[in-house]
Design a protein that fits this description.
It is a single chain. The chain is α/β, with parallel strands linked by helices. The chain has one domain. About 35% of the residues lie in helices and about 15% in strands. Strand 2, helix 2 and strand 3 form a beta-alpha-beta unit. The termini are far apart.
Amino acid sequence: RLIMGTGGAPSLEVLERSLIASGTELTTVAMRRLDPTVQGSVLSVLERLSIQVLPNTAGCFTAGEAVLTARLAREALGTDWVKLEVVADERTLLPDP
């Protein structure tokens, strides 16, 4: 199974074409960069294409932030699954050693 991320696409149109071309069935979405209530967002594209959403905690710098973001994802998207990300360096996105 191919898992794609939504963060690198320059537009929703490019993202949609990439998702269709790849045939992916599961895509990660950064919850800290998303408002699940907005129509026409990345979630709308994923729903229209019947692609399962795997929320992630990208942008979190502490375990506490990541847990809060994961809980918000559960409430907003109704999922118990999350891709956990905690970084120490915003430039490289590497974790704390």
